[in-house]
Amino acid sequence: MKRLIITAALFAFATPVLAQTPSYNFVQLGYQELDLDDGGLGIDVDGDGFAGSGSFEVAENWHVLASFSNADFGSGVDLNQFSIGGGYHTDISQTTSFFTNLVWINAEIDTNFGNVDEDGFGLSVGVRNNLNNNVELEGAVSYADLGDGADGISVGGAAWYRFNNEFSIGLNAAFDDDVVGYGIAGRFYFGR
C-alpha cells in the first residue's frame, strides 16, 4: 500500500496539471563562469562575466532572438560575443515545445597585444518542457562556425524555477570539447 501511495504521489508530481507550453517572449540576464581548456594549444584558463538574451514571438511558431555575453579571463584577456537571428518553434505536447534557431555570431577577443574579431553562424535544435506550473527544463544541441577552423558542437541545458507568470530564476550549463560554461540567470516573461 505504501508503495502504491508513493508511486501515485510521484506520478502526480511529474504530471503537469495546469502547465502550458513554454513562452518565447522573454528577456534574461545572468552571471556565467567559463573554463577554457585546449590541451592541443596548452591553454587552461577560467573566466567569468555577464550574459543576456531575449526572444520575441513575431508570428505563430516564429521568433526572433538576440544575445550578448562577456567574459574576463584575467591578464588583459576578454571575450565578447553577440548574436542575432530567428527561430521556429512548435508544440509537440501540451507542455513541451521543439525549437530550432539560426543566428549570426560576432566574437571578439581583446588582449594586451591586439584584438581578434570573427563572424560566423550558429544553429541550435532543442526542446523546452514545463514539468509543472513552476519548473521548466530545456536542452539543446548547438553548432557554431566562426571560420578558420573555429567550429564545434556543444550540448547545453537549463532548469528554471518560475515564481509567478512573469519571473523565473534558472541554472544553466553548456559543454563542448574545449569549453565548459555554467551560470545563473533571471528571466522575465512578457506578453502572457
What do you see in this structure?
This protein has 192 residues and is mainly β. 7% of the residues lie in helices and 68% in strands. It is built from one helix and ten strands; from the N terminus they run H-E-E-E-E-E-E-E-E-E-E. Strands 1-2-3-4-5-6-7-8-9-10 form a ten-stranded antiparallel β-barrel. Strand 7 (135-145) and strand 8 (151-162) form a beta hairpin. The radius of gyration is 19 Å and the shape is globular. The termini are far apart.
Furnish the topology, listing elements before pairings.
Layout: H1 2-14, E1 26-38, E2 43-59, E3 62-72, E4 78-91, E5 96-111, E6 114-130, E7 135-145, E8 151-162, E9 167-175, E10 179-189
Antiparallel strand pairs: 1-2, 1-10, 2-3, 3-4, 4-5, 5-6, 6-7, 7-8, 8-9, 9-10
